[in-house]
Amino acid sequence: MTVKRMDNIGIVVENLDAAIEFFSELGLNLEGRMPIEGEWAGRVTGVRNQRVEIAMMRTPDGHSRLELSRFDAPAIASDHRTAPVNSLGYLRVMFTVENLDDTLDRLRKLGATVVDEVVHYQDTYRLCYIRGVEGILIGLAQEFGHTRSQ
Which of 59, 79, 88, 103 is deepest in the core (most CB within 10 A)? Predict the structure, then answer.
């Protein structure tokens, strides 16, 4: 049996409102926001007695989602937000954007910083990694042939 689709990627944040604002500015749409708690949730995640508020963000094409979670209980176990790109485990999510320069200008107003520099990858993309809201590592790519600044 094969995978049917990828439903979402989850990111745990401290400030859910700021994360929603950031990813909304990036172009994702808020689908909904709700608390998650109860015995069933702990059986799924292995974290008993959890109280979490989630926000589900959808990409404009409707095919991908980002689940932002803020844990009220239990306390956060560890923090990987400042891990370098060669660390083991989940590290980043990448988005294709229409105009990289415009996107960077808008996200910088919310505290985003480019990790090193914007580069050209062959004749296909301009891309970079940024540290976004709460230091989350995000990749941004603009396909050549779309709006482009040199």
Answer: 103
DSSP state of 96: E
Q: Which of 95, 108, 89, 106 is nearest to 142 (CA)?
A: 95
**CA–centroid distance for 121 within its chain:** 22
Q: How far apart are CA 94 and CA 127, in angstroms?
A: 10
Residue 126, helix vs strand vs coil: strand
Q: Can you tell me the distance from the alpha carbon of 85 to that of 102, in angstroms, rounded to the nearest whole number?
A: 24
Whether 107 contacts 22, CB under 8 Å: yes
Which structure tokens are listed for 25?
Answer: 């500015």
In angstroms, rounded to a whole number, what is the distance separating the alpha carbons of residues 42 and 37?
Answer: 8
Angle of helix 100-108 versus helix 16-26 axis, rounded to 10:
160
Distance between CA atoms of 102 and 83, rounded to whole angstroms? 27
Residue 136: strand, helix, or coil: coil
Looking up tokens 């603009």 gives: 142
